[in-house]
Design a protein that fits this description.
Blueprint (H helix, E strand, L loop, with lengths): L4 H17 L5 E7 L5 E8 L7 E3 L3 H9 L3 E3 L17 E9 L2 E10 L7 H17 L1
The chain binds methionine sulfoxide.
């Protein structure tokens, strides 16, 4: 479901904060499940405009996380067969699902222009963030 206006503002703020804090976070945004449909829709983000405003479940890194319910860290996106390129500059990606009451309702997606930049700490921070977000979404 699409978050409310107030929540959307919070998500925008989070995108901006993460974008400012980490120089290797070069596209930071949210995707949410589109109602009952087996697809993700783009939510708030900071970074280059993307063609991927709707992503079917199973497609790309994001679509795979929509069905796996697990964090997907991709050190080198060009080694992935099932990958949707947003920008030719992107080298790495991390996608963390937002699980609310056991249901995968969306995800945070971060692209990096750096190869293999994401640390265990980054992953833990983002998983903590998504757990917190699940409480207000
Ligand atoms: N690369 C993603 C698509 C979304 S863009 O990174 C913003 C994917 O493969 O699912």
């Amino acid at each position: 479901e699409s978050p409310s206006h107030n929540t959307t503002e919070k998500l925008e703020k989070i995108c901006h904060l993460l974008d400012q804090e980490f120089d290797y976070f070069n596209w930071t945004g949210f995707y949410f499940k589109n109602g009952d449909k087996e697809e993700l829709v783009l939510g708030p983000y900071v970074g280059a405009v993307t063609d991927h405003t709707v992503i079917p479940f199973g497609k790309g890194i994001c679509g795979q996380v929509a069905v796996s319910n697990e964090t997907f860290v991709v050190p080198d996106v060009w080694e992935q067969d099932n990958y949707l390129a947003c920008s030719l500059e992107t080298k790495a990606e991390i996608v963390v699902p937002i699980i609310k009451d056991g249901v995968n309702i969306g995800q945070i997606d971060i692209d990096s222009h750096k190869k293999d930049p994401f640390t265990d700490e980054d992953r833990e921070l983002l998983e903590w963030l998504c757990a917190e977000l699940a409480k207000i979404l």
